[in-house]
Amino acid sequence: MTARIVFDLDGTLIDSAPDIQGVANAVLQDMGVEPISLNDTRNFIGEGIHVLVSKVRAARDISDSAQEPMLDAFIARYDEAVTLTVLYPGVRDALETLVHSHRLGICTNKLYRPCVAVLKHLELDGFFGSVWGGDNPLGRKPDPSALLAAFEALGDGPPIYVGDSEVDAETARRASIPFFLFTEGYRKQSVDTMHHDVAFGNFEDLPELVETHIRQL
What we know:
The protein is α/β, with parallel strands linked by helices and 217 residues long. It has nine helices and eight strands. It has a six-stranded parallel sheet, with helices on both faces. The model has no long low-confidence stretch (mean pLDDT 97).
């Protein structure tokens, strides 16, 4: 049976926090403000760039009036923020296995252009038949609209959403889509407290977990 599998991006397929930290700190440096840490950055990722900038401002006690200028400065650098980003172990092999039998997509709160830029940089863009960024017209996660549209674009077949965060879990819950939780990403809560149907910490296990899930349908 051919499934439709949609993935989150940051914290799920890729560890992009070092690049995002670099962009944030370049913006802060231009303002004469102290940098944020890598741990701060991981905690700020997940709800889209507008929320990330708001959290950076809050962490450095920067006024609300700086939101739009900082957002513009961040976006101006974001397309090039790819050089420090790496795949989580086993991702490429898992995608190569899954794409032979299933249709794959992306639904992320990352802006579409930076999403496409990092997928191309990592030579992942050929795996996905549907890519939805956070600036899509339907809204950002946890609103499930873009996720449902990503599945619709992939055609028929049982759906699976793969993500790493509380936002992803809530999006899947609202969409009534089975959720596979990657436990080694940017989540803040314990696995036991998060909504999920399957939890895994190694992408080498994902293809068999998918097949097991499909057999049980």
